Structures are given as C-alpha cells and as structure tokens.
Amino acid sequence: MPRRSDSPYPGHEQLVLKAMGGGLWDYDVDADILSCNDRWYAILGLDPARMPIRAIADFQRHIHPDDVAQATLVDEAAIADLIDHDDPYRMEFRIIRPNGTVVRVRSVASIIRDRETGHVRAIGCMTELDGPDQEAGEASAAPAPGGAGRGASALRSRERECLVWLSLGKTAWETAAILGLSQRTVEYHLNNAVARLGAANKVHAAVIAIRAQLI
C-alpha cells in the first residue's frame, strides 16, 4: 500500500467528494499507515511534499491538544462493533494550522477489513465545519453558476453536510444516522437548501451546490 495517494477513493464517489471539497484519507489501522489527498493537506494548511503525514503520530502534532486523545484513539472493541454493524465512524475535533489558526473539522469514515491484507482500514472524508458562510444572517453574494438562487452563498453548515451525503446517494434516514440527527431534521435542512438555492428539488439542489463549489 502506498504511503500517500491522491486517490484513496476510486471511481464516481472520489469525483463527488473532490467536488464538495472534502479531504480524503485512508488509514491502515494495523500497519499504522495513513494516506491522504491534497485537499486533506490543504485543510491542515500543510504542503505534503515538505511535511508528509504517514502515521497517526505525524497527524497528532496538528490536532488541538485538548482533542488529540479522543480524535486518534484506536479502540479495538469499538472498531469491531462498527464493522459488525456496518456503522460509520464519525468524529469532530479541532486542528491547528502552522499559522496558528484553529479550525473545527468533522471526519466521517467507513471501517472495513481489507480482503488482501486482512488489516482493518478506515476510509473517510474530512470537512471543515468553520467557514465565513456558517453564521446566520450573512448577506448573499451574486448568483452562483448552475442556476443557483440569490441565497446560494448562505448555505448553513448542516445544509451543506446534508447535501453532501445526498450527492453520495444517501437517503435522509442514512444521512441522519451518519450525522447523529433525526430524519426529520435532515429533511428540514435539505428543504432549506432547496429554497436557498432556488432549486426544483433536493437532487437539483445538490447539483447546483456541486457546480457552484458550495459543497
């Protein structure tokens, strides 16, 4: 397995995840080998050529001290339970960029057992939760490409997250399970996104958001 790859995800899902701006990562738990794409490094504010991250110990140096233990804990019992129930791993924590900026991120992953090596692997996506368009009441920018309405730039964090999982083919129920929300809450955020983007329906809203690089 390569130490670093720009394509931890093959095929269609990789393209969708790149469009939404998520950082892709692939961690071989048993071998302690971490492979990440360029967007993942960009979220951390790092140059992969100058400061490669190949193991959890490398990554820990960039996590907020108060969050590092929880964010990098490898609990064998918890991992086995996730695999048995086909449940996603999810974690929110803070990272610290080289310039001192603290950024809150969410990491969501699928836990699998590699058929070739027998190793446990976590394959996931890290997204920023902090952003200039996260707060309510912000002014809207000019309409974005792809038919986005006047409220396109004012998508809230939860609306973006729900659209991301919708774009990956997840139902409202599945998205609710991944994000730890109720199905009704997910539907609420998706309907709000449809209205903000001036979309005809939820799928149209996801298309608009991807084209406009809002997710």
From TrEMBL:
Domain of life, per lineage: Bacteria
SUPFAM superfamilies: C-terminal effector domain of the bipartite response regulators (SSF46894), PYP-like sensor domain (PAS domain) (SSF55785)
InterPro entries: PAC (IPR001610), PAS (IPR000014), PAS-like_dom_sf (IPR035965), PAS_fold_3 (IPR013655), Sig_transdc_resp-reg_C-effctor (IPR016032), Tscrpt_reg_LuxR_C (IPR000792), WH-like_DNA-bd_sf (IPR036388)
Source organism of this protein record: Rhizorhabdus wittichii
Annotated keywords: DNA-binding, Transcription, Transcription regulation
Protein name per its UniProtKB record: PAS domain-containing protein
GO biological process: regulation of DNA-templated transcription
Low complexity composition bias: residue spans: 137-152
